[in-house]
Amino acid sequence: GAAPSGSPAVKPPGSGPVAGLPPAFPPAPGVSPTPTPGGTPAGSDPVPASNAPIPPVPTKPAPGTSQSPGPTPTPTPSPTATPTPPPPTSPPPTSPPPPPPAPVVYQVNSLPVGRGGQSAAGPTIRPGGGSWWWDRWGLTIGGTRYGPGITVHGLSTVTIDLNRACVSYDARAGVDDLSSWLGAPVRFAVYGDGSRLWSSPVVRGGDAAVPVHVGLKGVRSVELVVQPQRSGLALVALADWADARITCS
Questions:
Q1: What is the rounded distance in angstroms from the CA atom of residue 174 to the CA atom of residue 207?
Q2: What single-letter DSSP state applies at residue 182?
Q3: How far is CA 68 from CA 56, 61, 205, 220, in A?
Q4: Dihedral in degrees, nearest 10, Cα atoms 165, 213, 153, 194
Q5: pTM to 2 decimals?
Q6: How buried is residue 142: exposed, middle or buried, by Cβ count under 10 Å (0-12/13-18/19+)?
Q7: Which residues pair with 105 in a beta bridge?
């Protein structure tokens, strides 16, 4: 109820100074007031929160574990040296062609007489030619002695069938010294397949032998011909084909 009248009125607590508390002094210049623990200092505005990012705290790997290494940088490739081209190589040597077969030489004084209708591997003297010949060794013409050859009369024809490819006919032609005293002049000639291939000048007894060389390429038969240049004793004179030989391939 209401307080009884005549009693002193009770004053509410006021804001005046409290007895027994010292007065508050302002802080010294330049000294910030000590913040109140656990809160914001009295009489100060709250500090706004900072928006700066908080750096992460590095963590140490747990014992016994290894940290994966970062990517290894790719090394810069060194410039590649330009290769030196190899020296040009020579082509392998080619084998030389085989040499041609050695020529075969047939001595006329050793030729066999051909047999009609039978083939032969080399030259043969054709039978029935009507002329006489004498196979000899050691003929003498103009005082010079020769080796193999044939002797014929001053009028004669000896036909030789070659029977193979031949190259040449070679000889020394002259009047044999056995009849040189006759002085009979003769002329020598070589025919191939009926065509004259070579002829000598007139040769008399005592003259030096005349060299003979006749090519026989493509020729199948050869005729050795002696002709007298004067009638009479020339027909019985002895004429020589000395060193007579046929070379075939």
A1: 7
A2: G
A3: 19, 10, 125, 103
A4: 50
A5: 0.61
A6: middle
A7: 247
Q: Please check whether the domain covering 134-239 is classified as CATH 1.20.1080.10.
A: no
Q: Specify the DSSP class assigned to residue 109.
A: G
Helix (H) or strand (E) holding 75: none
172 bridge partner residues = 211, 242
Q: Is residue 150 a contact partner of residue 108, using CB atoms and an 8 Å limit?
A: yes
Q: Is 111 helix (H, G, I), strand (E, B) or coil?
A: coil
pLDDT digits 0-9 by tens, 112-122: 999 876 778 99
What pLDDT does residue 52 have?
56
Phi, psi at 77, each rounded to 5° = -65, 140
DSSP for 167-180, please give it. Answer: EEEEEEEEEBGGGG
Torsion angles phi and psi, residue 182, rounded to 5:
-70, -30
In order along its 249 residues, the chain shows pLDDT tens digits of 444 444 444 444 444 444 444 444 444 444 444 444 444 444 445 545 445 566 656 556 555 555 555 667 676 767 677 778 777 787 788 888 888 889 999 999 999 999 876 778 999 999 876 689 999 999 999 999 999 999 999 999 999 999 999 999 999 999 999 998 887 899 999 999 999 999 999 999 999 999 999 999 999 999 999 999 887 777 789 999 999 999 999
Residue spans per domain, the chain: 134-239
